[in-house]
Amino acid sequence: MSTYQIAGALRGGRRRVAVADPVMTAAGCVVALVVLVALLAPLIAPYDPNAVDPAAVYAGPSGAHWLGTDDTGRDILSRLIHGARPSLIAPAAVVLLATAAGTTLAIAAAWAGGWVDRVISGVLDVIFGFPGLIMAVVAATIFGPGLLVPVLAMSIAYVPLIARVLRNSALKERNLPYIAALQLLGTPTWRIWLRHLLPNLLPIVTVQATVGFGYALLDIAAISFIGLGAQPPQAEWGLMVSSGYPGILSGQAGQVLYSGITIVVIVIAFNLLGSGLSRKLLGEGL
């Protein structure tokens, strides 16, 4: 019997019955559609997102401009489509960096225990005391506007959101008999981490990353809204809300309305998807 067969026999576990979840399916379809739009933006956008047309300033919805134009005559639909890329890539980078660091720290803390666990938990508690949005604002104020600095700052701030939850699960997994059996068989620590601990924790990681993506997208949009994230004339959803805000006073709320609705729909979709994955993979709702 191989070490993997021994580990599986000692770990046990319960089978999960696949049950259709229409809400999760709908949310997943929305997410998949937005990702597809972001990938195909240059092919499906009807206009150059930065093409200015002085003759079409604040044009209403029509056959030429389905969602109308903004204060410089740029096509709103084209800007929404092209804005999907930075609006999705930035939070994706936050989630990937935070998940990688948080997972590593959680497993290391649970595995080593003792003073290592206390130090890692203490550092995470300190970072957790600083909201990601505040860290991003401070970092962008010091190093200058743009998406790179806020992404790095928010990645650090999001690490405890992954690590604190994952550490408890990793600790329970660490104390299961199959881990002791693998150690007695002389299995290298790195192999236990990669072949057993990480795969068994993957459902929790997936759920946390999915829900975290929605919050990261909202924070990135907020950073761009206050002028410290994406910079004009780049098409980005948060920046579009900010740029279109003055138009509300003159009754031209199209840009704010469409970009704001897009942000809300995507955030809700990711939260519903995360909740559905939680029920499906962990047997509980968020």
UniProtKB/TrEMBL annotation:
It is a multi-pass membrane protein. PROSITE patterns: ABC_TM1 (PS50928). Pfam families: BPD_transp_1, OppC_N. Residues 84-274 form the ABC transmembrane type-1 domain. The chain crosses the membrane at residues 23-45, 88-111, 123-142, 148-166, 201-228, 248-273. GO terms for biological process: transmembrane transport. This is ABC transporter permease. It comes from Streptomyces colonosanans.
